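Audit log entry. Action: structure prediction of a protein-small molecule complex. Ligand: NAP. The ligand was supplied as SMILES and no pocket hint was given, so placement is left entirely to the predictor. Protonation state taken as written. Sequence taken verbatim from the request; no trimming, no tag removal. Recorded inputs:
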Amino acid sequence: MTEISDAVVLVTGANGGLGTEFVRQALAGGAKKVYAAARSPRDWGDPRVVPLVLDVTDESAIERAARDAADVDVLVNNAGILRQGDLVTGDVADIRAQLETNLFGPLLLTRAFAPRLVAAKGAVINVASVLSWLAWGKGYSISKAALWSATEGLRLELEPQGVQVVGAYLAFTDTPMNDGLTDQPLNDPADVVAAIYDGLRRGHGEVLADETTRAVRAGLSRVANAA
Ligand SMILES: NC(=O)c1ccc[n+]([C@@H]2O[C@H](COP(=O)([O-])OP(=O)(O)OC[C@H]3O[C@@H](n4cnc5c(N)ncnc54)[C@H](OP(=O)(O)O)[C@@H]3O)[C@@H](O)[C@H]2O)c1
């Protein structure tokens, strides 16, 4: 169980749709300080928000962030990218880029912040996706499936040391990532972030933020093309 109230929170991809909401709801929940990490930080007009330059694919920038933000209690690995392209014929660079941002970003950040999180008995939130469990996101699905596995593995290592590790899973949500998507019902980012912080407070290891995600998760034991 991790409280946001009085905590120091770091959000990656803070300028994005969900990132902005993670910052906003941390402040509303009484966070002492929020590091709003982004490739191009902006002014938030709140003295509790500390803008931080951070590209999650830059290992030296991650190490620097861990030194500069040495008081973090809750690390929110939110930054992510979505690239189109088939696995067989698409650009391999796009598949690699999604793994760098969506898998190695959260993994390297968690490694860099782990000593502090252990000392603080803090928490990590990894924002994955319902596409961790549905392959039609192609390279994006590969990266989010890998993040799911990484989240489970990190929990095995960090939970015994007092760190809560939360995997957050969600379906289509109304953010710039889905600009132009008009034929799908979209979650409100405020509802998704509220569900994730609620799961954090309750001590959960997994948050399923919407009905679609709960249904897909429940269907995982089904076997495709079984004899
Ligand atoms: N929206 C959905 O339907 C949905 C569903 C499931 C999961 N998710 C996940 O939710 C998370 C947030 O996405 P969103 O929907 O809020 O999308 P978004 O509005 O596109 O925000 C993504 C943010 O990630 C940042 N980012 C990308 N690459 C980065 C890098 N190398 N270093 C640092 N920041 C980087 C972007 O920064 P810039 O502003 O610098 O580009 C942007 O602020 C992602 O992990 C996404 O995969 C979203």
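Audit: result stored. DSSP finds six helices and seven strands in the chain. Residues 12-13, 15-19, 38-40, 54-57, 78-81, 101, 127, 129, 170, 172-173, 175-178 surround NAP (CB under 6 Å).
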